[in-house]
Amino acid sequence: MSFNTFGHSFRVTTFGESHGPALGCVVDGCPPRIALSEADIQPYLDRRRPGQSRFTTQRQEPDAIKILSGVFLEEASGQQVTTGTPIALIIDNVDQRVRDYADIKDKYRPGHADYTYDVKYGVRDYRGGGRQSARETAMRVAAGAIARKIVPGLQVRGALVQMGAQRIDRARWDWAEVERNPFFCPDAQAAGRFGEYLDDVRKRGSSVGAVIEIVAEGVPAGLGAPIYGKLDADLAAALMSINAVKGVEIGAGFAAAELPGEENGDEMRMGNDGKPIFLSNNAGGILGGISTGQPLVARFAVKPTSSILTPRRTVDRYGRETEIVTTGRHDPCVGIRAVPVGEAMVACVVADHYLRHRGQIGDAPAWPFAPPRGR
Ligand SMILES: Cc1cc2nc3c(=O)[nH]c(=O)nc-3n(C[C@H](O)[C@H](O)[C@H](O)COP(=O)(O)O)c2cc1C
């Protein structure tokens, strides 16, 4: 049994460890004749790449993507396109420092998966956490770049909306601002505060968590399946699978529990284009596990970075109580680099459901339906 694959029709298998020679993935199920080159993938990896500001780990990884299979230079168009066969992608690891981990190889780092990997497998790659390392999420971002190309008109964007106890002011939300500050924060004023706050956290050798919001626009109505194939269930599973994520909500999420029914249920009207308009989006674009055509809205909470400079109590793999200090290079808020990862996971889930819908339904009868005579 192995669990390194996700998706059904758009299927992604990742492999590799933090301090192994390379990370890779195989994307199976991508339709043929989609223009695809490294240049389509690299910009997304560059947004996740470490060492870009003083607020993320100083590990220097270029994360240069190489496509090994599944593409062909089409003569007619002169473009490199997907062939419908498995697309294998690879990134070389170049900046490993094993000595950073020599002191802690037998000890379990609090908040990390050292104990659980050891108790489950009986062997553990202690170099940067091996497979438990979030280096693996680079391949999710690469797969997400392909997923974005599958659904026509799909736009998936993410933003950091809370850092520690500090929140953005949603009235100041500006998507353009997300690309202008090192936090992917949509509120320029909050980004300024986050900078000062995180500098203080970093200097104290501490860490903080974050909340990230992902919005997917251009998702057609009808994706997702009832009961066991719910779009919201798959989104939650995909986001929850990201390292350090401890909570996921869709639309109004946990706040929906406080709303009365007359506020929560999104009322409907007809738009000029013959499609329904929802007067609010507390559902986060999903009803009964099926997309409404409104933007999908999901949020996830990321815990504070576990590797901090404060000594912590722990045990070692021989059952002895001890203390541990994690040196090495770490992000003071891993939620920042989780933004492109969250976007990628949502893109993969939407692409998977788009292909699943096409497989089962094909072209559904056009909505609105003609009323029966006399009604
Ligand atoms: C992009 C990203 C980067 C991360 N970098 C670090 C890090 O530098 N130090 C650390 O302690 N945890 C880091 N993490 C979180 C750990 O990988 C994660 O907490 C650990 O593997 C235990 O898994 P769990 O928190 O999902 O239970 C990162 C997570 C993400 C999403």
Count of DSSP H/I helices: 8
Sheet bearing the most strands, described? 5 strands, antiparallel
The protein's oligomeric status is: single chain
Bound molecules: flavin mononucleotide
Strand arrangement across the biggest beta sheet: 1-2-3-7-4
Please tell me the overall pLDDT.
Answer: 94
Structural class, from secondary structure content? alpha+beta
Q: Quote the distance from N terminus to C terminus.
A: 56 Å
Taking Cα atoms only, what radius of gyration do you get, to the nearest Å?
Answer: 22 Å
Number of strands: 18
Q: Give the proportion of residues in helices.
A: 10-25%
Please provide the ordered H/E string of secondary-structure elements: EEEHEEEEHHEEHHEHEHEEEEEEEH
Low-confidence spans: none
Determine the strand fraction and express it as a percent band. 15-25%
Global shape: globular
Describe this protein's structure.
The protein has eight helices and 18 strands. The protein is an alpha+beta fold and 375 residues long. β14 (286-287) and β15 form a beta hairpin. Flavin mononucleotide binds at residues 57, 112-113, 129, 132-134, 137, 242-244, 303, 305-307, 330-331, 334, 337-338, 341. Flavin mononucleotide (FMN) is lined by residues 57, 112-113, 129, 132-134, 137, 242-244, 303, 305-307, 330-331, 334, 337-338, 341.
Produce a short descriptive summary:
The chain has helices at 38-48, 114-121, 137-148, 175-178, 188-203, 231-240, 261-264, 338-360; strands at residues 5-6, 11-16, 22-28, 65-67, 71-73, 80-82, 87-92, 155-163, 166-167, 210-217, 245-250, 268-270, 276-278, 286-287, 290-291, 296-302, 312-315, 321-324. With 375 residues, it is α+β, with helices and mostly antiparallel strands. The structure holds flavin mononucleotide.
